Amino acid sequence: MTAADVLKQVLPKHAEPEHDPASPLSVHDMTVAYQHKPVLWDVDFAVRPGRLIGIVGPNGAGKSTLLKACLDLVPRASGSVCIYGKAYRKQRRLVGYVPQRESVDWDFPTNVLDVVTMGRYGRMAWCLPPRRRDREAALHALEQVGMADYAHRQISRLSGGQQQRVFLARALVQDAQLYLMDEPFAGVDAATEQAIITLLRALQQRGRTMLIVHHDLQSVPEYFDDVILLNMRVVACGPTRDIFTPENLQKTYGGRLTLLDQAAEAMARQGRQ
Amino acid sequence: MSATRTNSPIRAAFDRKRAVWAALFLYAIMLAYPSISFSQNETATQLKPATWPTRAQIVRVVTMRDQNTWIVVAGTTMLGLAAGIIGTFAYLRKRALMGDALSHATLPGIAIVFLLVGAKNAPQLLLGGAATGVLGILCVLGIRASTRTKEDAAIGIVLSVFFAAGMALFSVVQTQPTGEQAGLHSYIYGQAAAMSKADMQRIAFVAGLVVLCVAVLYKEFHVVCFDRAFAASQGVSVTMVDLLMMMLVVFTTVIGLYAVGLIMIVALLIIPPAAARFWTDSLTLMTVLAGVFGAISGVLGAMVSALFKDMPAGALIVISAGAVFVVSMLAAPKRGVIAQALRHTNLSRTVARQNLLRAFAEIEEREGEGATVSYQALRGERGWSQHALNKAIAKARRALLVTGDEQGGFRLSTPGRKAAREVLRNHRLWELFLIRYADIAPSHVDRDADEIEHFLGPEVVAELERALEERRRIPASPHTTVTEAGA
């Protein structure tokens, strides 16, 4: 019996929880365990529509796992996840996912346009090849991220920032309401970072909600409306201005001084704004 | 951009419709071939020369005038095709070695079915093999998922233990009265030459199934191999696609046991895709090429084995595949070893020539146009070895960029001067750019610019000109070269 099964029995059974249909993503008492090690404990939050939300926490805090558990990619030991009040499998088309860039083999024999077209697979029938309009949609998404010139380039010949833009385009082409992005700013150059944040703001203008795993504490107050501080459990969540405080960061990161220094700096900058 | 689109001559020749028609045409020929070619009145010659075959024998084998030759060639060709195609996806899914565990794990199944049924009935033996083969895969996946043992170790464990169990059971088979003649060893080493028409038809069926499944589910196979998590988020049932892919690998492996043998069958799953990867960056083309390479290996192996007595077809098929791989590895246009070595040589030649020209240009800048430059002055200009400098000078003289000799000193020719100024200008532009925009100290900028300037294309140079508002003249050096010259 795995730890997950044990937890299932030990944890109290909840009645069908109340989920707000207006909330793009509500997570209720979710616990996730990998084999013998619990990764997330009793995670409970609901996000408000049209917000840019950062998920922040130390390495191994379960940030990526949180996204994956919301997408049914890893099994939940307990708890529930609702997308606009319904189970994920019924709302799949409303959710776009941007995995970590390192999660795929970039030497795979395929080109940029083919990768972006994958974002349309969810609305295409099984067994049918992509049609012209799918490719056109993919090309349009590439234009939005400034990569249209690279449509036919082999993906191994892209820089890290370009790879990230391709992944973003693949999510854009899906035209989802809620986007879950795993470290879209990791390993990209400053120009790409600016381009991405501009794009995210534009999506926000169109009413999309975005949950973004982020590792650079300094830019948190600048980028995100709301923040979820995560370290195996939700330490705090809510508007960045209220939640992103040195005390909460201390709780999230423990006594790691360098990180606190960074955070203090970020605090100072937030005060100046 | 345009270079990637017109990928290679292969892509130019490739057209989906044409390919489908060509495949159907070949298939029809293969089916119709017996009625055209078999010599009805001659009995199939058992003659297998121990020496080099005569020309008549070669013609006889190549035109497949014996039905047996045709069966073997058709069977191994379609086996190679199927294995190459499904192997492409196993390879990209990083599951290629799983095929090895699978094939070795078929052995106990074959032995058990023989002991239970007691007959040499191929379909039943193959089913038994498939059963323990799948069990072997499940063991690998189970060990990997529930323990900290890594996949390569899990494959090694399952492969050897199942194979050992099979060998132990085989010793029991040998004690049976019918055991000796059962020919079960064919499944270990393969015996394509003894392939029956029914064997060949089974291979044809599996090959058809593989081609059909891959054609129909191409999009799903593509996305699952590339990015499983994203595939799942798109509602693609990753488990189902994986399962189907694995089942096709199982079918292909099991059906190929009798022809190639369980030790070597994995070669047909791995080598053709690995060879095909050298030639193309497109998954479609890679799949087709892997199928073609597998088929070629099958044809070659079967035909050579028909020409030489006691040459096992399985081994020859794998050797042929290996030959295809070596040729691909060496000769492929972009990823091949030779192409890469040539690119590297060309690049270092360009760098050496540009370095020499820049040294001339910098000396001319100090001493006036048309100055005679001594060998010693050139040596002092950069930290290059005597050998490298001699080589660069020799090359430049042959290209008529530089005139003169060691005694009288060297001079730039008119085209040489033009090229040298271009090189110097790019170098200076890049230096200025680094100082102004990348915050690099002027004392370090020479070395940094030195690395990159050789790779500046015309667009980048134009971009630099815009950024630095420099027009046609050569900007002055932003740092003193005295330290260099004095050192």
Tell me what you see in this structure.
The complex is a heterodimer of chains A (273) and B (487). Chain A has helices spanning 3-10, 63-70, 112-117, 132-144, 160-172, 190-205, 220-223, 240-243, 246-253, 257-272; strands spanning 26-34, 37-46, 52-56, 78-82, 95-98, 178-182, 209-213, 226-231, 233-239. In chain A, the strands form two sheets. Chain A has a six-stranded mixed sheet, with helices on both faces. Chain A has a three-stranded antiparallel sheet with strand order 2-1-4, with helices on both faces. In chain A, helix 4 (132-144) packs across helix 5 (160-172) and helix 9 (246-253) packs antiparallel against helix 10. In chain A, 44% of the residues are buried. Chain A is an alpha/beta fold and 273 residues long. Chain A has ten helices and nine strands. The mean pLDDT of chain A is 84. Chain B has 487 residues and is mostly helical. Chain B has two domains: 55-335, ABC transporter involved in vitamin B12 uptake, BtuC; 343-486, Arc Repressor Mutant, subunit A. Chain B is 74% helix and 2% strand. Chain B has 23 helices and two strands. Chain B has helices at 2-5, 9-13, 16-37, 55-62, 67-92, 98-117, 122-146, 151-175, 186-189, 197-216, 218-226, 228-233, 238-260, 265-279, 283-307, 313-331, 337-367, 375-381, 386-398, 414-437, 442-452, 458-468, 482-486; strands at residues 402-405, 409-412. Chain B has a two-stranded antiparallel sheet. In chain B, a hairpin with a 3-residue loop joins strand 1 and strand 2. The model of chain B is unreliable at 1-7, 40-47 and 481-487 (pLDDT under 50). The interface between A and B is medium-sized, with 39 and 30 residues.
